[in-house]
Amino acid sequence: MASGIVALLAAAVLWGTVGPAQLLADTDVAPVALGACRMLLGGLALGVFTVRRAGLRTLWRPGARLWLPVSILVTAAFQACFLEAVDRTGAALATAVTFGTVPVVSGLWARGLDGERGGAAWWCGTVCSVAGVGLLLVPGEAARADAAGVFLGVVAGAGFGTYITATKRLARHGADTATAAPVSVVCAGVLVSPWLFAAPDGITEPRAVALVCWLALGTTALGYLLFTRGVARVSAATAGTLSLAEPLVATVLGFVLLGERLSLPAACGAGLLLTGLVVVSLPARGRSRDDAAPHTGPADAAQHTGPAPSPDPDPDPNPLSNPAPAPSPSPARRPSPAPAPAPHPARGRAAGPAGPASGGGHAQG
Predict the structure, then answer these.
(1) Phi and psi at residue 262, in whole multiples of 5°?
(2) Cβ neighbours of residue 69 under 8 Å, at least 6 residues apart?
(3) What is the pLDDT of residue 194?
(4) H helix or E strand, kind and range, residue 350
(5) Nearest 5°: phi and psi at 265?
(6) Are residues 107 and 122 in contact, defined by beta-carbon separation less than 8 angstroms?
(7) Cβ density class 270-292: b for 16+ within 10 Å, e for less
(8) Can you tell me the distance from the alpha carbon of 280 to that of 159, in angstroms, rounded to the nearest whole number?
(9) I need a labelling partner for 46 at 20 to 30 A (CA). Which of 158, 311, 321, 334 fits?
(10) C-alpha distances in angstroms, 268 versus 20, 312, 347?
(11) Higher pLDDT, 316 or 150
């Protein structure tokens, strides 16, 4: 449990540095071209540790091969739109908008595909997210919080929420998600790689090379590796709560290193987005112990909702742990050193671990 928490927290911190690192490097590289480099290099590095030949075969199963292209498309959309949103609105605001949108979109997909009805926490988070985005669009002194940047952040969040749904669907159809992640990232990088030829300016500068290495190896390869290892060791609620470190890190770094300041409406909107994310991520009260374990789909839930096993007719089948009491001596005779008589047939148990079965009883082994 502790190792899983540390791994997830480390992944969230790494991902929270994406926006600040992009702005701190201050390169002339187009955000989409930067995203292509990040996905290609990071996906290949991640695949070295996670891709298996048997896992690749699972991606071509009938149900999985329908959702793999969806995973690739939304991965490309998330990378391109998120980096562009950071460039337009700043690291703190772009991260808040993006990850404030994720639970809303995930809930809508769950309702449309599985008929899941959102609870009070989801509705509260949705209202906070919609109101927060509305406040971000209010004109203010912060010129970087423009409508296009906010819109791109929403699209990035929708893409990430859809990616979560696609990953769940892949797992439901028996695909190896540890293999699907780098495959999706690399294929998404190939999909947007034409931007490297259309806008190659600044890609070979030392600052740009250092930025690409950090985004690809640090935040993508290492971040996803830590996430996939940590998410299997904690509950879903804990994983959602720990993910809040990502916008928090981006906000702190944007304020301390980049001097980002928001207008009052924009600050209130970002606060509403983060509040909605907290409400959705916190575990519900009265959750059973079974719910504390991480679930990967309805198949896991079925293990906890099935009929209870029937009670064992003989709760202690081992005679060593509950030996039959020795028969009391007859009051008419004095005890003799002779072996004790066999137990009465009505008891239905053996006299001891090596004793014979008596009457209608059954032998205990």
Answers:
(1) -110, 150
(2) none
(3) 94
(4) none
(5) -60, -40
(6) yes
(7) bebbbbbbebbbeeeeeeeeebe
(8) 18
(9) 158
(10) 21, 59, 76
(11) 150
Distance CA 86, CA 251 (A): 12
Q: Are 228 and 50 in contact (CB under 8 A)?
A: yes
List alpha helices for the chain, DSSP H: 2-16, 18-25, 31-50, 53-58, 64-89, 91-114, 120-136, 147-172, 177-192, 194-198, 206-213, 223-230, 236-242, 245-256, 264-281, 289-292, 298-305
Confirm if 96 and 150 have CB atoms less than 8 A apart: no
Tokens, residue 75: 């991965």
Residue 174 CA to residue 296 CA, distance in Å, equals 11
Residue carrying the six token digits 């909107």: 269
pTM: 0.71
The residue whose two tokens read 């926490």 is 121
Gap between the Cα atoms of 32 and 191, Å rounded: 11
C-beta separation of 251 from 73 below 8 A: no
